[in-house]
Amino acid sequence: MASPVPLLSATSVTKAYAGIPALSGASLVVAPGEIHALMGENGAGKSTLIKILAGVVAPDTAHIAIDGAPVTIESTKAAYRLGLRFIHQEFNVVPTLSVAENIFMGRRYPRRASILVDWVELNRQAQRALDRLGIDHIDPRQNLGELGLGDQMLVRISAALLDDAKLYVMDEPTAALTADESQRLFRVLREIRASGSSVLYVSHRLDEVMALCDKATVLRDGRSIDSGALANITHDDLVALMIGRKVEEAYPKAVAEPRDTTVFAATNLATLGLKPTSFSLRAGEVLGIAGLSGSGQGELIRAIFGDFRVTSGTMSLDNAPYAPASPAAAWQSGVAYVPRERRAEGLVMRRPIYQNITLAHLKRQSRAGTWLTPGREKRFAADLGANMRLKAVGPAQDVIELSGGNQQKVVFAKAVAGDPRLLLLEEPTRGVDVGAKFDIYSIIRERTAKGAGVILVSSDLPELIGICDRIAIMRDGTITTIVDAAGLGEDDLVNLCYGRTTGMVA
Amino acid sequence: QAKVAIVTPYMAQPGTQFYVEAFQAVADENDWDVNVIDTAGDVAAVISRIEDLVVQNVDAIVINVDPTQVTAGLQAAKDAGIPVFGMDAGADPLLVTNVTSNGYAMAAETSTYVADRIKGEGNVVMFVFEAFPPVQVRGVVADAVFGNYPDIKVLDRVTPDVSDGGIADSRAKMEAILSANPEPGSIKAVWAAWDQPALGALQAIEDAGRSGEGIVITGIDANPQAREAIAAGGNFEASVAQDFSGIGAATADAVARVLAGEEILQSVTYVPTKLITKANATE
Amino acid sequence: MVFIRRYGTLIGFVAILVFFSVMLPATFPTARNWLNITQQTSMLMVVAAGMTVVMVMGDFDLSVGSAASLAGIVAALMMAAGQPIWAAVSIALAVGLLGGAFNGAMVSLVGILPFIATLATMTMFSGLAFVVSGGKTISGRAIPEDFGNFARGGIPLGDWGGVAVSLPNLSIIAILVILVVWILLEQTTFGRRLYAMGGNMEAAHLSGIAVKRLRLIAFSLTGLAAAAGGLMYASRVASANPVQGSGLMLNAIAAVFLGTTMSRHGEPRILATVVGVIVLGVLDNGLTQLSVDSYIRQVLVGALILVAVGAGSLGQKRR
Amino acid sequence: MVFIRRYGTLIGFVAILVFFSVMLPATFPTARNWLNITQQTSMLMVVAAGMTVVMVMGDFDLSVGSAASLAGIVAALMMAAGQPIWAAVSIALAVGLLGGAFNGAMVSLVGILPFIATLATMTMFSGLAFVVSGGKTISGRAIPEDFGNFARGGIPLGDWGGVAVSLPNLSIIAILVILVVWILLEQTTFGRRLYAMGGNMEAAHLSGIAVKRLRLIAFSLTGLAAAAGGLMYASRVASANPVQGSGLMLNAIAAVFLGTTMSRHGEPRILATVVGVIVLGVLDNGLTQLSVDSYIRQVLVGALILVAVGAGSLGQKRR
Ligand SMILES: Nc1ncnc2c1ncn2[C@@H]1O[C@H](COP(=O)(O)OP(=O)(O)OP(=O)(O)O)[C@@H](O)[C@H]1O
Ligand SMILES: Nc1ncnc2c1ncn2[C@@H]1O[C@H](COP(=O)(O)OP(=O)(O)OP(=O)(O)O)[C@@H](O)[C@H]1O
Ligand SMILES: [Mg+2]
Ligand SMILES: [Mg+2]
């Protein structure tokens, strides 16, 4: 194969935030007609590099060329005109506008009489963009905010695919997608490759990357340390390249079997969007919750957490009646929560890391429950952060300055900081690199070894199978079955979620 | 029972209270149903409220706002045959009559008092307010009087912020002026177009420890706080009492006469005023 | 449930209307009275419509009242100096547009918080109005009769129960302004982009919307509407003084906010703003007709707004 | 660069101070004048300190001015009725606290937007002040001398360049209030929680913060501070009228917002609010001493604020 002019070449890209380097001479070369993975651990500089290409962040130095011609990208509009399309890591949608309007955001709407919006045409074109991903369950006229996270991501992808471009850049597009939805995205990405355009792809799901991408560039500490065809490298070597050490196993072994005491039980628990549901959780057990999006997983968690008013049924915690009136009461009882959307629900972005971590534990992290002790708080936060390899300047750094995966670690740290009896986790490892995932799983196992119970909602099926003891399947607002995770295959789980029978039902 | 309405944007000003109370007293004697409407400074709202009153078909309307600004409302009342009276408002063909004190005369009284007291020479600080016509005319007269003395210099012509009543801001302004003119005798007098700035200036002078310099302060209106200050014998020496109650009562009398079928010919009805000094402040 | 949540505030307002109609059957629910209300609220309507444009982006403009006063003063001074009415009106509108553009530049180009920027320009415009007018009220013969007559005129609608009614000119202007703003916000790409900015400024910026330019334009339009409101006010009172618009600012913001309690996601909508303005106008109109003492009226207006809006909010218990 | 960004506004303000000191070397930078400024701004300081508490949560309180007026009226009426000063002051403070709690209940329990809720209560409190006072100014012999004397008194500080200076009582109160608010916001879990709520209400709720209760408390404190400011005002003018606090509201919000331009992420901070209040006070004091015409002074105040804040903002390039 002749070596053609690269579609995109970015060399000597440097960027420092307040003197601290995020990129130190990184380079990236993407050829036409390839799906190129951009790899690296949390905080390696992937998103920063992408934002520079998108004209969102100004680099300190950069030599960027498109089709061999040097360019400077000084605005989002410039990037657009150069034929680059982006899906950024954080959710950038307008929930109050319709799906079609979100798809067309930033572009000129179809018009009548040269000024008035042609709504019919707008919705038609939006529908076409959705069709391209094979999406038929989303109405372009719907409000985007009414959709689940996965569907919102599908809309964002449709928006990027609205017209033809040279390079599509996607920063963790599958973090919120189900396996099925991911497959549809991959089909389109392969179509794009076939048409001669390229894709720059970021994901911490390595299996996905190995299966989909042709080439990879690995960033570590803001430098490109290797680049090459994925066909020539094994999974384990890739991990070692990224995080600089070997990870033997994806999931830590359970230290102890679940005990026979019950930590938590729900009896006929119901709330808005949740039909009467009963289950119990043993001390030291991790119970996974699987199901299609919108099956009531979120409602179940929020009901247990005291955030949704329970309309019927009872709960018990450590065999005592448990009926929290609010999340405040839940935390008091020793229940901790990692919410689904870290930026909207989990973090106070413009506050320091340590303040975010101690927010739910201020009673204990203060003198007499009243007087702040910032020094102690910082030390406490620094210790916790070290446990999960939090990459930050220090505990006083504002969360908004952290990379996506590191923000997620802060949310997790807050949840485990108070030695909870019951951990409620929604997508706790979203955007977290393989190494840090292992750390998080280890912490979960540490908690269970001390007799805590864990309820884990995740769209990452290998994760569910790997870390859970049992998995509850939710459908239409209630738990339909609970199966043992051991020996379960991904396909079995998918079938269960769709309500298709397999021989596996326990 | 006759329905009479008073519409004013200036209810918060002390004078207005007295008009209204005296008016009410006469109204009670006549057993009228009085509706007092304050539009809190909004002149267009005066028109709106007059329109509402016309819809409601009241028997008489009293305003205390410049009639040329509410012509639309006055016209609506006239079309409906409802008589409108001015209570210290201004003369206008659409009004039956306007009952008021003579503003030119009041300002002449205090400004000549000042000029005489300082023997026609020295620096004078003026507190004025141009946005309100009846007060604005006072400034005009005082300007003329001081301008007629070659040795009187107007040091500053201050318009205080009146949104809080005028005392506090006038005081802050006077404090600054005193700081800028630290020499004893560098300020001979403070002439204020109404009492609140005079009171603010008095506080500033006393607080600065300069009450011994003999700075002469005058106000206009002679409200209770001013009378007390004058009676105390300090720098605040004189003010002019408008007979607010007299204006209110005279307006009510005019309304009564018209309701009784009489015709009123003079477009302005003057009610006498009086210079207030230490001698008669407590009367 | 969903019904109450969405329409709670509206129901509260309808209850107020029903109350007045029952208490004042002969005068409140008449065509004449309603035409009065549209005229009485027309200035606020125009200013609030302009305010809606910036509030859609999540911004404020505190300077509209001063801008209205300034525009009125400028027009009055020009007319007093013998300029034709059309020239005076055009220059006054241009002053409003420029003032708004200045606000927009401070907010979007310099990057000052809208609250501070427009508070500062509120002071500046008001000071300018005092400076150019010398603090005086310009009235009487200085103002051409035609100018004052405009606000008094209207299009005759014929007889209604024996009374001749006409659609006031001021109301017509208000309706036109509402129509233009409605088209702008709901039917053009420009308006939809403002909504995108209000919903998520970051997302709007990332998707290539020229947020700085649009913000500048939006503030300019608000300034223009404020000037129009100020001219209407000046025409209605056939005079101009440097403070006469000052009451418009808080009421305009209040009307837009009242409107937001009726929209799906709490975003400002022009038609909801219209309802908000009318509610404020109806409360004044109805309580005056009921001869409620003005002080007690103040307390009642506040309380009624709380009850009406509160009814809507209580319905929205999510948890 | 980072320096300019963070301290740009502060540098602008220092430039203003230097300017006045150069123009008025004999009178502006004197202890006497500065003590005057602290006294003149003391009421605004107290009200703005209270406003900072709710603005930390991202809320507003538009009713502080009316609450101040109402508290002043209540105290004056009680004193006029022969009650001892301490009783009158306590009851007036209680009225402020209750009014604030009412605001808090509307916002947090009923769920009305702070802007609408406090706009409504602003109208209500103001109406109440008129109703209880009958619209009259209460002054003169109705007010005990001791009450008015308090504002005139102070702690002697000795001689300063031949002039006897003293620290005014009102300034002392302002300093105490600032200290209390500083401790509350910066040193206690209560303040930490308010800041978290201001940063992300949802995250704060899900982190176990009793957001409703805290909001209620915060609004109550703001009401209390407003009442204190109103009492100080009444003492300073030795009288009370139902509108005298109305200028405080916008200025208090302006001071807090000016302060936010000096903090890291634009969050309100009490010490920054103090700077904001002093800037407003210094501009008034300095320009008056320069005998700048009061109308032109208005324009200058606005322009200087824009320049000072703009200097800070321009340093903050977004990308
Ligand atoms: N606004 C900012 N201010 C200061 N530092 C920042 C800022 N944004 C990013 N950084 C730092 O730059 C480094 C690179 O971050 P980046 O978001 O590019 O990482 P990433 O590779 O995308 O990580 P992840 O996989 O977690 O998303 C991190 O150390 C981060 O803390
Ligand atoms: N980052 C982007 N993402 C998506 N579309 C973009 C982006 N930047 C620009 N566009 C689209 O590229 C085209 C050219 O942009 P530009 O805004 O200059 O057009 P315009 O003529 O100014 O349109 P308008 O008058 O509607 O603003 C438009 O269709 C615009 O919507
Ligand atoms: Mg990233
Ligand atoms: Mg464009």
UniProtKB/TrEMBL annotation, chain A:
SMART domains, alphabetically?
AAA
Query: Looking at the record's lineage, which domain of life comes first?
Result: Bacteria
Q: Which GO terms describe its cellular component?
A: plasma membrane
Q: What is this protein called?
A: ABC transporter domain-containing protein
Question: Which family, according to UniProt?
Answer: Belongs to the ABC transporter superfamily.
GO MF terms, alphabetically ordered: ATP binding; ATP hydrolysis activity
SUPFAM superfamilies, A to Z = P-loop containing nucleoside triphosphate hydrolases (SSF52540)
Automatic annotation (TrEMBL), chains C, D:
Instruction: Spell out the GO cellular component terms annotated for this protein, sorted alphabetically and separated by semicolons.
Output: plasma membrane
Intracellular or extracellular location(s)? Cell membrane
Q: Would I find Transmembrane helix among this entry's keywords?
A: yes
GO MF entries = transferase activity; transmembrane transporter activity
Q: Which UniProt keywords apply?
A: Cell membrane, Membrane, Transferase, Transmembrane, Transmembrane helix
InterPro entries (UniProt xref)? ABC_transp_permease (IPR001851)
Which Pfam families does the record associate with it?
Answer: BPD_transp_2
* Highest taxon, organism lineage: Bacteria
Q: How does the record classify its membrane topology?
A: Multi-pass membrane protein
Sequence intervals crossing the membrane: 7-28, 34-55, 62-79, 85-102, 109-132, 160-185, 216-234, 240-258, 270-289, 295-315
What is this protein identified as?
Dolichyl-phosphate beta-glucosyltransferase
* Organism listed in the record: Devosia soli
